[in-house]
Amino acid sequence: MIKTRLFITILLMGCSNFLFAQAWGGGADNNDLSFGFSFSYLQSSFKIIKQPNWQEPFFDTELNQYATSKLTSISSKPLPGFAVGFLTRYRLTDHLEVRATPSLVFADRAVSYTYVNPDQDVTKSVQTTTVDFPLQLKLKSDRIKNIRAYLVGGLKYSGAIGSKKNEANTAPTERLLRNIKGYSSYEAGFGFDIYFEYFKLSPEIKLTNSLGNMLLSESTPYATPISRLSLHTFTFSLFFE
């Protein structure tokens, strides 16, 4: 019991020293311009707007026959991914800054199709690697010793690299569901700047929604039933500055 109390006392003293010690941060906020890097975990899913006749079987004009049975559902579940990036920050005022966080993103997206004939049920992955170019405003609270809260929001342009194509001689049910190569998004989130002796750590949570239609319209069993695809992403990031 005495050892447990001693451990708790030492732990509380350590936390107290961190929160109320001298102003740390490695000079991250002392300059108007500073740089850093980030690691992110994300989950992405599609919001799907279907065509009015989305349940109809897909008729392949080349083979002159139906390639699928009737659809019963189209859905998309969140899939994980990760990103690595850089940070460039410019201070406008003590509580407002603009930042750019270009990142390389590795993430899978998927759409699941179920049919009257269950043997035709399939999940189509949209494998993409993108380069993201966000531009954001960061609104910061007053600093209380070694921590402060902030809100962040802005716009982002994403460009896909290494996307696959549908070959002309591929069977209809083997064709890919594809997205456009470049698209824009808006994003908003919040986080905390935590100041250590030689650097600043900023854990951040952000939600991102794409603008416009991400579907690449093609005559396939998987693109034809869909009118519009929008991408929704949840991101947890750690920024080091």
Short overview:
InterPro entries: Beta-barrel_OMP_2. Helix content is 8%, strand content 55%. It has one helix at residues 2-20; strands at residues 33-50, 59-60, 65-66, 71-75, 79-91, 96-100, 103-115, 122-140, 147-161, 182-195, 200-211, 226-240.
Return the CATH architecture.
Beta Barrel
Report strand %.
over 45%
The shape, in one word, is elongated
CA(first)-CA(last) distance: 41 Å
CATH topology: Porin
| Helix-strand sequence | HEEEEEEEEEEEE
- Give the integer mean of the pLDDT values: 85
Q: Characterize the biggest β-sheet.
A: 10 strands, antiparallel
* Number of DSSP E strands: 12
The number of helical elements comes to: 1
CATH class equals Mainly Beta
Question: Percent range for helical residues?
Answer: under 10%
